[in-house]
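Example protein
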Amino acid sequence: MSDVPQDQKTMGMLAHLSALVTIGPLIIWLMNKDQPDKSFVTNNAKEALNLVISLWIVMVPVWIVAYILVFVPVIGWIIDIVLWLLMMAVGIAGLVFIIMAAMKANEGVEYRYPFALRLIK
C-alpha cells in the first residue's frame, strides 16, 4: 500500500470527483497549494483541473460550431448531429476517466489523465 494518509487520499478522490462541477478542483488546489505536506492532494487537484480546462477548450468551440450549423439546412444538420455525438462521447470518456482517477486517488496512487493538457504545473 501507499504511505499517503487516508485524509489526503479522500481529498485527492474529492478533487477528481469535484471536476464534475467544473470549479471544484480549482477550489481544492487553491486551499492546499501552499501546504507542502499535502502534495498528494495538490497534485491530484492540479490534474483534475487540467482535465476540466482541457474539456472546456475542446467542448466550447465544438458547441459554438454545432449551434451555428443548426441554421444550415440538411448538411449542417447532419454535421451537427455528428458533432453532438462527438461531444457526448467526449463527455462520457471524461466521466469514465474522472471515476477511474477518483478510485486511484482513494488507493493513494496519483493518476494522470491520458488526454489532458498540462496547463497547470
In short: The chain is about 70% helix and 0% strand. The first helix runs from residue 6 to 17.
